[in-house]
Backbone:
């Protein structure tokens, strides 16, 4: 199923090979079908849009929780506390945005054929 394969970081073309080989290290191509993930230099610039749309709501939610927990004592402290919680999540957002970008490109190419 496409959503499960996306969430588990499988290759969009064969759904077997893993896109990432480490926390931040990506495979250049699919270890199963050989599909090249980074098709050209700058290919993953588009993933920044997805990164933005994942990161902004996540940080806003953390800031709201932090403001609530700290009882509006110090907004700067609340935003800093939210940032401390958010920063360890950034590798997840990096991974998710690249995987979503690959699936977006895959689905777009399939539709254009
Ligand atoms: Zn593959």
Residues:
């Amino acid at each position: 199923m496409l959503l499960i394969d996306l969430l588990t970081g499988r290759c969009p073309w064969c759904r077997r090979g893993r896109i990432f080989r480490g926390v931040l290290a990506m495979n250049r191509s699919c270890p199963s079908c050989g599909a090249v993930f980074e098709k050209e230099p700058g290919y993953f610039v588009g993933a920044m849009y997805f990164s933005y749309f994942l990161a902004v709501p996540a940080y806003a939610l953390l800031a709201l929780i932090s403001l609530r927990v700290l009882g509006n004592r110090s907004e700067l402290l609340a935003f800093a506390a939210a940032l401390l919680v958010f920063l360890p999540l950034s590798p997840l957002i990096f991974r998710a945005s690249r995987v979503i970008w690959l699936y977006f490109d895959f689905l777009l190419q399939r539709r254009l054929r």
